[in-house]
Amino acid sequence: DLTTIVYQQSDNIATVVLNRPDKLNAFSETMHKEFYQVLNHIVNDDSIRCVLLTGAGRGFCAGQDLGERKGAEKMDLGEKLENGYNKNLRLLKSIQAPIVCAVNGVAAGAGANIALNCDVVVARKSAKFIQAFSSIGLIPDCNGTWILPKLIGLARAKAIAMLGTPVSADQAVEWGMIYQAIDDSDFDQQVDELTHTLANRPTRALSFIKNIFDESYSNMYGEHLDRERDVQRVCGLSHDFSEGVAAFNEKRPPKFKGH
Ligand code: T3D
Prior knowledge:
Belongs to the enoyl-CoA hydratase/isomerase family. This protein is of the alpha/beta class. It contains 10 helices and 10 strands. The protein has helices spanning 29-43, 77-93, 110-116, 144-152, 154-163, 169-175, 187-199, 203-215, 221-236, 239-249; strands spanning 5-10, 13-18, 50-55, 59-61, 99-103, 106-108, 120-124, 128-130, 167-168, 180-182. The strands form 2 sheets. A 6-stranded mixed sheet has the order 1-2-3-5-7-10, sandwiched between helices. Strands 4-6-8-9 form a 4-stranded mixed sheet. It binds ligand T3D.
């Protein structure tokens, strides 16, 4: 019964496709609700070992549906953010499986920053990232002001946020904003390989990796060494560590279970 998102699950991979191609997959009120519904399902399904987020048609996501903001001068956007994007991003962040964002086309406004909140971001060479917010009198949201300076440095982050300059996929890779730019013709196949590879890796260790990198921004040096020690202790007790070591010594590929 989803109308703005296509959701499917196979090979332990959950695929979420933003599906309003006529509007470059801009977020409508309905899409916010359906995105939440789908993320909530993913959070509660332990069998999922990789999540793929992408868009239908020629765009990834053009951010907020501005058709729904016509004549909205007195609208409380803080409330809109809290009950829309922020609610969804908090849920997205709580997903333990690795999240791949396959940016299949233009990613603008909230669309760009939702992509950057994912763990492994790849883009078609023809895709562009646009911090479109200031062009309509807003600031970057969806934690863009948190993540952009960390990824590309303050100088570039401020400039693209103030100018709304489109950043090509190649430029985004060069700046460290995303992981890879892929030729359009190879995109679907490489994304498929990437998600299958991740879904067969030690899922729990990957979830620790997600979290501990984020923690590094607020931990002090010694405190962080303590965290690595504690987390590594847990990893060392896992099936996947025993299997990884056994496979190495037996010169065979490992068969990870994800725990
Ligand atoms: O309000 C809140 O809740 C606060 C939170 C805000 C978060 C935000 O995301 S603010 C930023 C919102 N997004 C934008 O400002 C981007 C607007 N879109 C564009 O600048 C351009 O469409 C693009 C640069 C993304 C792509 O340009 P182009 O030339 O490739 O495509 P186009 O022709 O502009 O768009 C194609 C269609 O999609 C078109 O519809 P039409 O004329 O064929 O019927 C266009 O109106 C529609 N579309 C694109 N973006 C949006 C949209 N419709 C509604 N909302 C959009 N954001």
